[in-house]
Write a structure and sequence with these properties.
This protein is mainly beta. Helices cover about 5% and strands about 35% of the residues. It starts with 7 loop residues before the first helix and ends with a strand.
């Protein structure tokens, strides 16, 4: 008796990633910085993403991809009394990717490169990339550093100075994949 099995290996390779559902995505979690009291001295604040960021490539094309990152200028919004927004330079923010790991069934990470110690800017920069041959799901947990220079100003009060809440410094970090 002759049994012919066609495509079993191909079907096993495609479980959960059928071409009709092909995607290329990056999912980033929000970052929350610990509170820092600005006392006139230079300070460093470090925080890690609370959950791993995820890159998913199920296109089955072996096409390259690039994860880019940018940030807006950290700004404390104007209040009702202190009416000028305060800013800190975006170049005080940096990111280190950390190790990249592959999910079960993903291609090896050998074609993935990352940039660590990347100083952020308002223009997109490469955080991670693949030259191709990286179908699957990959994880990494970035760590962010915020270097606060000496004599950084406190954030603005939302209302009356000294008796209302402070408007936090805020920066939007944008992560894209293409």
């Amino acid at each position: 008796m002759l049994t012919v099995v066609i495509g079993v290996l191909a079907l096993a390779d495609l479980v959960g990633r059928r071409p009709a559902e092909a995607v290329l995505t990056v999912v980033a979690t929000d970052i929350t910085w610990p509170e820092v009291t600005l006392n006139g001295d230079p300070q460093v604040s470090v925080t890690a993403a609370p959950l791993p960021w995820t890159i998913t490539d199920t296109r089955l094309t072996d096409a390259p991809w690039t994860v880019s990152i940018s940030a807006t200028t950290p700004t404390s919004a104007a209040g009702s009394v202190e009416t000028a927004p305060r800013t800190l330079s975006v170049s005080n923010l940096s990111v280190t990717v950390g190790p990249v790991t592959a999910d079960v069934g993903a291609d090896p990470i050998t074609n993935i490169t990352t940039t660590s110690g990347l100083t952020l800017s308002t223009a997109p920069q490469t955080l991670a990339s693949s030259i191709g041959d990286n179908t699957g799901i990959y994880f990494f947990t970035p760590t962010f550093t915020f270097n606060l220079p000496a004599n950084s100003y406190r954030s603005n009060y939302s209302g009356a100075v000294g008796s209302s809440s402070l408007n936090d410094y805020s920066s939007t970090i944008t992560v894209t994949i293409a």
